[in-house]
Design a protein that fits this description.
The complex is a heterodimer. Chain A is mainly α. Chain A folds into two domains: about 90 residues, NADH-ubiquinone/plastoquinone oxidoreductase chain 6, subunit NuoJ (Four Helix Bundle (Hemerythrin (Met), subunit A)), CATH 1.20.120.1200; about 40 residues. Chain A contains six helices and no strands. Chain A is globular. The N and C termini of chain A lie far apart (about 70 Å). The mean pLDDT of chain A is about 85. Chain B has one domain. In chain B, helix 5 runs antiparallel to helix 6 and helix 6 packs parallel to helix 12. Chain B has twelve helices and no strands. The model of chain B has no long low-confidence stretch (mean pLDDT about 85). The chains are: A mainly alpha, B mainly alpha. Chains A and B meet through helix 2 and helix 3 of A and helix 5 and helix 6 of B.
Chain lengths: ~170, ~350
């Protein structure tokens, strides 16, 4: 086994192991914190696929933004209001059917398109410049639409969070 | 450096491990002595002497302190969540130390020569936030939790002006690669980016430095650990080596942001006089000297400015620094289009 494989399995183990904690942990805070390792592991897998820009963006957006906000929400509800939030099992049969369908279709897609492992290229090519160029040329419209949607969401959130004006 | 080590040791794994450990040789003595400098600088600014007893002018005071911390009992509060409580300092220090992977100490040494070094630096600081939240929550203490929440809110807000101010430099240099940014500033000191596109990049430095103070929880933005309100913030419950680890990561963060300011605006390892006193060893000397100058400014500000209130902090971040950094980006962009 080469170093590359060892590192791949290490990151895969981190990702899958922590994702299992996210799913099976009864304590919602543990679940939120193990998401850190899941996101980190996925970023590591991106690095192994030589998508360095994507990996760093993954850490910036998911760890820096989404996870922090999630933890904020969990902590403010769990400790400050002192309600024990636990996750339990509800609707086991429909959930199992749905999970089986999703897993089956993903596995089917994987085996239909799988063509063996290709060795990683020896030199690392910079991906930042091509991604930037594509966002400014071919994909300018989707990029701008996404930013407008985010802006609308932000304005909406700020509007809802405001205290209603006293009449 | 990597090739040199590979030639001697002939073992890739060993070389990469060594490369990962080398910044620690700087970080640990730095943190030890920075505590002493902080105490001496504050003392002299207030017309006191500060530590004087242990060694020459108290110079080995912090070594005595760290020995005390090592010998202390490691207390985990009964009501604390012990798993997360024990894990948190490692995550905080891991995040802080991970930033050193891309810091170019010299022309010959960078831990990792990735070409998106600056972007990596901005994103990896968010791991520290999760560690702080973990420490604050697991302590099961309202002061710790408030400190952690304040710290997270502050770091998340001030990440934006930091990233925007650094983006102006990226626009001028045309790369995220910190070594390439260093090479772009070679020559006499007026080639440094702080003097380029005057005054846009100069103001970018001011914005970056202000926001980075908030990111490393230094005064005037130290509300997460405001002693007068919150005891010690997120590290209230920590003692012994775990406390030392949290402190070490705080000081290593201080140097990391100073190192980025040095690299982006003050030529990094470039000598101020062109090729005079250049080369890898002098490069390391210049880099560390410039970095320590920023450390001194951070300590100087701490004993000069009063602490901000939470709402003032948010005001400065969102309504002053962010709009001005957008102005700087547009300004630099227009300049680059006009003078082509």
């Amino acid at each position: 086994m080469e170093t590359f494989d060892i590192i791949f399995y290490l990151f895969a183990l981190i990702t899958v192991g922590s994702a299992c904690i996210v799913v099976f942990s009864k304590n919602i805070v543990y679940a939120a914190f193990s998401l850190l390792f899941t996101f980190f592991g996925v970023a590591g897998l991106y690095v192994l696929l030589q998508a360095d820009f994507l990996a760093v963006t993954q850490v910036l957006v998911y760890v820096g933004g989404i996870l922090t906000l999630l933890l904020f929400g969990v902590m403010l509800t769990n400790k400050v209001i002192s309600v024990d939030m636990k996750t339990g099992t509800l609707h086991a049969v429909p959930a199992m059917i749905l999970a089986a369908v999703v897993f089956g279709s993903l596995a089917g897609l994987f085996y239909a398109t799988w063509s063996g492992v290709t060795a990683p290229a020896s030199s690392i090519i910079s991906t930042a410049r091509p991604i930037g160029e594509m966002l400014m040329t071919g994909y300018a419209l989707p990029f701008e639409v996404a930013s407008v949607i985010l802006l609308v969401a932000m304005i909406g959130a700020a509007f809802m969070a405001r205290r209603p004006k006293k009449l | 450096m990597k090739e040199f080590l590979l030639n001697i040791l002939q073992n890739e794994t060993l070389v990469y491990t060594l490369m990962a450990i080398i910044p620690l040789i700087w970080v640990i003595p730095f943190a030890l002595f920075a505590v002493w400098w902080e105490r001496k600088i504050s003392a002299h600014m207030q017309d006191r002497l500060g530590p004087m007893r242990t060694g020459w002018h108290g110079s080995v005071q912090t070594i005595a302190d760290i020995l005390k911390l090592i010998l202390k009992e490691d207390i985990v509060p009964t009501a604390a969540d012990s798993t997360l409580f024990k894990l948190a300092p490692y995550i905080v220090f891991g995040g802080a130390y991970a930033a050193y992977a891309v810091i170019p100490f010299s022309a010959a040494f960078t831990g990792s020569e990735i070409n998106i070094g600056l972007f990596y630096f901005i994103s990896i600081s968010s791991v520290v936030v999760v560690g702080l939240l973990m420490a604050g929550w697991a302590s099961n203490n309202k002061f710790s939790l408030y400190g952690a929440l304040r710290s997270a809110a502050q770091i998340v807000s001030y990440e934006i002006p930091v990233a925007l101010a650094l983006l102006t430099v990226v626009m001028v240099a045309g790369t995220f690669d910190l070594q390439a940014i260093n090479h772009a500033q070679s020559g006499m000191f007026w080639h440094w980016f702080v003097f380029q596109k005057f005054p846009f990049l100069f103001f970018a430095l001011i914005i970056y430095f202000t926001a980075s103070l908030a990111e490393v929880n230094r005064t005037p933005f130290d509300i997460p650990e405001a002693e007068s309100e919150l005891v010690g913030g997120y590290h209230t419950e920590y003692s012994g080596m775990r406390f030392a680890l949290l402190f070490l990561s705080e000081y290593s963060n201080m140097f990391a942001v100073s190192a980025i300011a040095t690299t982006l605006f003050f030529g990094g390892w470039n000598s101020p006089f062109g090729d005079v006193l250049g080369g890898p060893w002098w490069g390391a000397f210049w880099f560390l000297t410039k970095g320590m100058t920023f450390i001194f400014v951070q300590m100087w500000l701490r004993w000069t400015l009063p602490r901000l209130r939470v709402d003032q902090l948010m005001y400065v971040g969102w309504k002053v620094l962010i709009p001005f950094s957008f102005v700087l980006i547009v300004g630099v962009g227009v300049w680059m289009l006009a003078v082509r």
